[in-house]
Design brief:
By secondary structure, the chain is an alpha+beta fold. It has one domain: Immunoglobulin-like, CATH 2.60.40.1820. The chain is about 20% helix and about 50% strand. It is elongated and about 85 Å long. This is LEA type 2 family protein.
Length: about 160
């Protein structure tokens, strides 16, 4: 007799559990990140920057524009890293774009000093990344990333 008393509640619980499974995976849009994977000082004085864009969202995102201020050695202004990659990056993945930068004099000096001394140089990227989540509206993400680059052994003029 007691088993009949619990049967409706058990059926209701199973129905609620199944209803929760119908909604599918959670669509989470998280703030992306950007960092310098490699900086190469070219013979013409410009820098070739391999910028790694990371999508931490659970959905694919299309990255439409990057506008980041780069400073090196705490205060040395290097310039603006700007690109319009129109690049789609899958969920929880990353990709790399190459951007050419004509650095400011203070940035050139800081990078040259670090390369000559064989030591690391800190850098900061700050600004914005414009991205559109899959099936979503375009969004602007404010970015601030602090890290450092070290000379790559055997590759003159390269910081990683």
């Amino acid at each position: 007799m007691k088993a009949r008393h619990w049967t409706p509640w058990l059926a209701l619980g199973l129905a609620a559990l199944l209803a929760g499974c119908v909604s599918g995976p959670v669509r989470r849009v998280s703030e992306p990140s950007a960092r310098i994977q490699q900086l190469t000082v070219r013979a013409d004085g410009n820098w070739s920057i391999e910028l790694r864009i990371e999508n931490f969202s659970s959905v694919p995102m299309r990255f439409d524009a990057v506008d980041l201020h780069l400073s090196v050695a705490q205060q040395a202004d290097a310039g603006q890293v700007r690109a319009q990659p129109a690049l789609s990056i899958g969920p929880e993945s990353a990709d790399v774009i190459t951007v050419t930068l004509m650095p400011q004099v203070s940035g050139k000096i800081a990078a040259a000093d670090a390369l000559a001394a064989g030591r690391s140089v800190p850098y900061t990227l700050s600004g914005r990344i414009d991205a559109t989540p899959d099936q979503g509206k375009p969004r602007v993400f404010n970015i601030e990333r602090k890290s450092e680059l070290s000379p790559a052994p055997g590759l003159p003029g390269v910081l990683r």
